[in-house]
Amino acid sequence: MEKLSLFLGCIVPNRYPGIEKATKLCLQKLDIDVSDLPGASCCPAPGVFKSFDKATWLALASRNIVLSEKLERDLLTVCNGCYGSLADANIELKKDPELRECTNRCLKEIGMEFKGTAEVRHIIEFLYKEFGREKLKEYTTIQLDLKVALHYGCHLIKPSRDRNLGETEAPVFFDELIEATGAKSVDYTDKMMCCGAGGGVRSGHAAESLEMLEHKLACIRQAGVDCIVNACPFCHLQFDRGQLAVNEKFGKDYSIPVLHYSQLLGLALGFSPYELGIEQNAVQNIEFLAKIYEISAGLR
Amino acid sequence: MSEELPKVLKAAGLDVLSCMQCGTCTGSCPSGRHTGLNTRRILRDARKNRVAVLSDDALWLCTTCYTCQERCPRDIPITDALLELRRLAVKKGFMLPEHRKISEMVMECGHAVPLDEETKQKREELGLDPIPETVQKYPEALQELRNLLKACKFDKLTAEK
Fold first, then answer.
1. Which helix (H) or strand (E) holds A63?
2. Is domain A133-296 given the CATH code 3.30.70.20 in the classification?
3. A2: nearest Cα among A91, A72, A66
4. What is the reported pLDDT for B17?
5. Where are the domains of chain A?
6. Crossing angle between the packed helical segments B117-125 and A17-29, to the nearest 10 degrees
7. Cβ of A50 under 8 Å from any chain B Cβ?
8. Which chain B positions have a beta carbon within 8 Å of A272's beta carbon?
């Protein structure tokens, strides 16, 4: 299917609407046919729901997929967690008839049926595989003179048996999309390490989750970058709001700006930091904001 | 009860018998570097049917990053196995209060993280509809979701035991 529906999930619409706005602006500018997905719910969050009950996890994920099947559109997510739930559930239900029958028995209670006619896409792999880095470059109007610490996030690339995105120790496809905006993806220690939020750890074991985050932030600061870029609002929330919590808990003074890839791409496509909701982050780094406003206005 | 853990894992396609206790999982674990999570030990306990592993809080320190699973030299789907153990733990009533709250939140409003006033305002500043196009906007969709959760008996599973 060439038509997509935008699956919002929870954190994008309910905490970081700037990512929603940025994604919609970018997709429109790139002439990608994407619609809303009215009535969609939590994906459901893989770290918790998949840890609680498989039947419920599959039922809720499949309801979201069926909403898109009805629109005859593939789902597009901008979140690694939503991708983890929806793509994995879609694969399991397509390949296991017994599981599908079981899930359809639950769905029947609400008059739905999973048919397996839609695919689940993540904006990063979609842009890389379908749209293409070179074409993306053609659409950019501003070269971003920024040094970026890229955080892939875990569920975009793992489990690798289901992702088809190559190896997981040192992937490069996302770095290439960063560089298509003119920004430089800077290597740093433990780049592929988890942000510490997933698996219900941020909610269930907040202190331990922040320990992991602090390590990651220390590595990123050492690399001397302008900002962190991610493709997952849960990692985004951990890096952004978590950064303030780390400062408080460990007596640190981190102030590293955090952007979702849609926001970085939005800047390169000519949208202003304000339109992209970058100023709405918890981390307020005035120097960085001044820099991107200057870049955005063509002053540097 | 005999051999319950290895049996459940095997039925889910996870053969922990092939674990040679090399420790690659623990050595690769971003959580274990900072916390008490020892993945190698959890696999050994499961293999030896030590059911106490189900009430072990460490089970909930895994961020499900899949690094152990990707690096396991015996190709054991370790993260999948750990998730299977968590589901068994939940069935037996072991669930963190924070996780119970997230479950209730989804049953109540369809989202693990619900909309708040601050975000509504941020949405308006961006020119977005203050209420997003999700289940939060459509009462009939929310009812449908609740009915689906009920059909899965999720309310019973997550109720305090």
1. helix A54-70
2. no
3. A72
4. 84
5. 4-123, 133-296
6. 30
7. yes
8. none
pLDDT at position B122 over 80: yes
**pLDDT tens digits, residue range A53-109?**
999 999 999 999 999 999 999 999 999 999 999 999 999 999 999 999 999 999 999
Compute the Cα dihedral for B46, B83, B40, B23 and give only its sign.
positive
At the topology level, CATH places domain A4-123 in Glutathione S-transferase Yfyf (Class Pi); Chain A, domain 2 (1.20.1050)
- Residue A140 exposed, middle or buried by CB count within 10 Å (0-12, 13-18, 19+): middle
Per-residue pLDDT tens over the stretch A133-154: 999 999 999 999 999 999 999 9
- Taking a C-beta distance cutoff of 8 angstroms, is the pair A40, A64 a contact? yes
Cβ proximity of B148 and A105 under 8 Å: no
Confidence of residue A129 (pLDDT cuts 50, 70, 90): very high
Pairing of strands A147-150, A120-122: unpaired
* pLDDT beyond 80 at A131: yes
CB half-sphere exposure, B65, CA atoms < 13 A = 29
Contact indicator for A43, A111 with CB cutoff of 8 Å: no
Check B154 against A56: CB less than 8 A apart.
yes
Of A269, A270, A216, A267, the closest CA to residue A240 belongs to A216
* Model confidence at A241: pLDDT above 60: yes
Asked if pLDDT for residue A14 goes beyond 60, the answer is: yes
- As given in the structure block, the two tokens for residue A297 are 């206005």
In 3D space, the residue among A276, A266, A229 whose CA is nearest the CA of residue A18 turns out to be: A276
Which chain B residues in 66-85 lie under 8 Å from chain A, judged by CB atoms?
66-67, 69-70, 77, 79-80, 83
Indicate the SS3 state at residue A11: helix
Q: Is the dihedral of CA A85, A87, A93, A96 positive or negative?
A: negative
Domains of chain B from N-terminus onward: 4-91 (1.10.1060.10), 97-158 (no CATH)
Q: What is the ipTM of this complex?
A: 0.96
Cβ within 8 Å of A, B 86-145:
86-87, 90, 95-96, 98-99, 102-103, 106, 110-116, 119, 122-123, 125-128, 132-135, 137-138, 141, 144-145
